[in-house]
Amino acid sequence: xxxxxxxxxxxxxLVYAADNxxxxxxxxKILRDKGIKGEILLCVCPQVLMEFFAVITDSKRVENPxxxxxxxxxxxxxxxxxxxxxxxxxxxxxxxxxxxxxxYKVKRQAVFDLQLVSTALANGINKIYTFxxxxxxxxxxxxxxxxx
Length: 148
Description:
Distance between the termini: 23 Å
Radius of gyration: 15 Å
Order of helices and strands: EHHEHHEHHEHE
Number of strands: 5
Helix content: 40-55%
Strand order of the largest sheet: 3-2-1-4-5
């Protein structure tokens, strides 16, 4: 098993897995639970976990926000999950990010999606699970997967 067998979870998958009112709840929760059990190879990075925290606690971004204390417990569950790989940005991530910014000429908020891509690529991962297909499909270096 190599890191190329893993897929990064985008923050929206984590948000939907924590929000049973979401139409994407079931597919997100199934995917997440398979990752927690080691049935599928998934990973997270600090940016994804902090985006999850920011969104799930914000009443302007979700219908049923949760308290910060509950959100941090959810983050800690991902950090403690034995079978979910934790990846981190490093020097190669930033170098890759600057190369990709030049290549794709991204602007504004799109740089944060590209930062996820560069972190994944620098860690040998070339797949991401997300419901925001258009945010990532323009980046040819990563394969976009939609939870089913």
